[in-house]
Amino acid sequence: MTDGTPKQRIGRDKAEGMEMNRKKVSVIDLQSRKQSGQPISMLTAYDYTGALLVDRAEIDVILIGDSLGMVIMGLESTVPVTMEEMLHHCRAVAQGAKYAHLVGDLPFLSYQVDPREGVRNAGRLLKEGHVDSVKLEGGREMAATVRAIVDAGIPVMGHIGLTPQSISKLGGFRAQGRTAAAARRLVDDAVALEDAGCYAVVLEAVPAPVAAVITQKLQIPTIGIGAGPHCDGQVLVFHDILGLYDKVQPRFVKGYAQLQQPIIDAFTAFREDVVNHRFPEDEHSFAMKPDELEAFYHSLKE
Ligand code: KIV
Questions:
Q1: At residue 290, does pLDDT exceed 90?
Q2: Where are the domains of the chain?
Q3: Which long-range contacts (CB under 8 A, 24 or more apart) does 50-57 make?
């Protein structure tokens, strides 16, 4: 697959040259971006190849999101995703990304029961999954858990608004904080997460003016998904940005490419080549030295 032909080497050299001045993005770098006003870019990735592509695009943060339950495993929600599945994907992403800050999602019920369990599972994502920090869902009710994880030396990203792990309680994938009282609760949740030690917080499906107030109130960066333009950063899901997943299509998604049809076209072309004996050709096959081939044929007669 990668035999290092000149064309492949040029591509690799260029990519490596571009990477020479890059350094790994840290929590401190992300926090200083709030002060400098330089927006943070974040995308999800779930495997080695995806992480390599996202890293080469110089995205600041890669989230190994439990959204993998939906876009990779085809489940109806993120609720069934397990620690073992998260660890498996975190390890794969860590192999592909050299520079982006890696955030591993703590899956449902890996931190909600008690803070000690949260610390243990957050630690596993770092030790076994090789991520740099963890993300968990919830506001004030998660403050003690956030504090315990941070006290163990593990940076935590919060996540409020539409929290998909609570989908049953929320009654579906819908925007949050749309009444004055609910918006006010979100502000209080964000402040509680900051006070508990979060280094950043994701705001999902929240009215833009509410996200603006939270962003202005917090010292730590906010990263929006369906939370308007005033957040300190933006995050999208890998399969959404590439137009690969169409089961759920939130209105806040912007498709930067529509790869579903080109991929299907490539698979169809392959099938047609196979069926019509057009693939493989000589250039895809291995030859033998004529004398070895002759000897081989001769050996069959013995
Ligand atoms: O799991 C995920 O991909 C997420 C993002 C949508 C923020 O939590």
A1: yes
A2: 6-258, 263-300
A3: 50/93, 50/96, 50/238, 51/92, 51/93, 51/94, 51/95, 51/96, 51/97, 51/100, 52/96, 52/97, 54/97, 54/100, 54/238, 55/96, 55/97, 55/98, 55/99, 55/100, 56/15, 56/18, 56/19
